[in-house]
Design goal:
The chain has 6 helices and 7 strands.
Length: 324
């Protein structure tokens, strides 16, 4: 986040700005409302309230009780004259950092809801297409999309940062009822639409399912067992190969001279065989035995086990958070 001025006098019309600059510091403080001394609302645009809306406002904070309206008067289900689409829009900071009470020509600035620029909002609607790009510009994700062809009631929160604070716990629970607020069936034929998407950077191009921790631990433990079995099998094969190599390097033939045995091949086979035996021992067998001694149980204990509830700092399961 960039550096933000505590008091931004660029929001004032030029004539007013020059007047304020001529005041002494105490008078400037009173002008800006320092210490809640009655500030001027040069940073507060006027909301374009319709006859069907009730506006409760103070400065640039407002609550609008009306009908589904994401931007202009004709937008949303309220603009279409739809039934059962009441809404409540709680907003602070309309137009965000661009908020002014007057435009460059000194005319009163009249604004609509702006789900992109308004600083912070809690939006409640009885019927809305909240996932439609005309609302918050959200990506589709993988769970059920609430669009114009499948509207629903919604509560949407938007600000620079959100904090959900609980003294005990937070639960995100979906598909609690058999019917939604529009009377539609919450069926079970496609359960994916009742899931929870976590989308960072407003980018759903690489959405993937979450892993279930207990199943992952069971899978990794089974893999560890299979790897140990494979290691044992490989050591057995190496033992067989060592015996074969030893037999080959000491191998002799019977000569045609009275059937006496020949000497082993000291020039090629024996040196090469000894090299193979040494390299196999140093580079394969010994490292495997050391690794087996150090890691076969250490890996499981460090990452996959919590004996008596005592968890290693590297235990892969969360101590607090769970998902289905």
């Amino acid at each position: 986040m960039g550096i933000i001025k505590l008091i931004d006098d660029s929001l004032l019309p030029e004539s007013i700005r020059d007047m304020v600059a001529s005041l002494d510091p105490a008078e400037q403080g009173r002008f800006w409302g320092v210490g809640f001394t009655g500030r001027k609302t040069y940073d507060c645009p006027k909301f374009d309230v319709t006859p069907d809306e009730k506006l409760i406002s103070n400065g640039n904070s407002s609550v609008v009780l009306g009908y589904d309206r994401p931007h202009s008067r004709g937008s949303g289900f309220g603009g279409k004259g739809a039934t059962q689409c009441s809404s409540m829009d709680l907003v602070v900071g309309r137009l965000g950092y661009q908020a002014k009470s007057e435009d460059s020509l000194g005319r009163e600035k009249l604004v609509n809801p702006n789900f992109k620029k308004d600083a912070a909002r809690i939006y409640l609607s009885q019927k809305a297409a909240v996932d439609d790009v005309k609302y918050f510009g959200l990506p589709a994700g993988t769970v059920g999309n609430v669009g114009t062809d499948r509207p629903g009631s919604t509560i949407a929160l938007k600000a620079d940062t959100l904090r959900f604070v609980a003294r005990e716990n937070i639960k995100l629970v979906t598909r609690t009822d058999k019917k939604n607020s529009q009377g539609g069936e919450c069926g079970t034929s496609f359960q994916g639409q009742y899931g929870i998407d976590l989308i960072a950077m407003n980018d759903d191009s690489d959405m993937q399912p979450m892993v279930k921790g207990n199943n992952l631990v069971a899978c990794l433990k089974e893999m560890s067992k299979q790897i140990n079995k494979l290691r044992d099998s490989l050591l057995t094969v190496l033992d067989y190969q060592r015996n074969l190599t030893q037999g080959l390097i000491t191998h002799t033939h019977f000569s045609p001279f009275f059937g006496s045995p020949t000497s082993p091949d000291f020039t090629t086979l024996m040196p090469k065989g000894i090299e193979v035996l040494v390299n196999t021992a140093l580079n394969v067998e010994i490292p495997m035995m050391i690794e087996d001694t150090m890691d076969s149980t250490g890996f499981v204990t460090k990452y996959l086990s919590s004996p008596g509830g005592m968890r290693s700092s590297r235990y892969i399961l969360s101590k607090y958070n769970n998902t289905n």
